[in-house]
Amino acid sequence: MNEQAVKRVVIDWLDDNYHFGDAETIIGSDEDKSFLQNGVLDSLGFVKLILHIEQTFNVRLDRKHIAPANFDSLLRIAKHVASLPGAKFSP
Amino acid sequence: MKSLHLPVEQELAARSQMLTFLRTVEQRTEQSLNGDYLALHRWACDNFADFWHDFLVWSKIPFSGSEHPVFEGAGVEDGRFFPSLSVNYAECLLRSSPDVPDDITAIAFRSEQGDHKRINRGELRHDVLSIAASLEQAGVTAGDRVVAFARNTTDTVEACLAATSLGAVWSSVGPDLAPAGVLARFQQLEPTVLFAHTEMLSHGSKRALKEQLREIVLGLPSLKMLVVLDDSVVGDLDLPIEVVRLEALRSREPLQFSALRRFPFDHPLFVLFSSGTTGAPKCIVHGAGGTLLEHLKEHRLHSDLRVGDRLYFHTSCGWMMWNWQLSALGSGVSILLYDGSVSFPDATALLKILEEERISVFGTSPAYIQLLRESEITPRQICDFSNLRVIQSTGSVLYDEQFDWIREFFKTVPIHSISGGSDIIGCFVLGNPLLPVYRGESQCVSLGLDVRVLTDAGIERSGTGELLCANPFPSRPVFIWGDSTRLKFHTSYFEENPGYWTHGDLIDLDACGSARIKGRADGTMKIRGVRIGPAELYGVVLKIPGIREAMAVEQEDRREPGGRKIVLLVVLAPGVTLDRPFTLRIKRELSLKTSAVHVPSVIVTVSELPQTHNGKYSERAAREVVNGRTPKNLSALRNPDCLEEIARLVPRSV
Question: What's the CA gap between B70 and B550, in Å, rounded?
Answer without folding.
Answer: 48
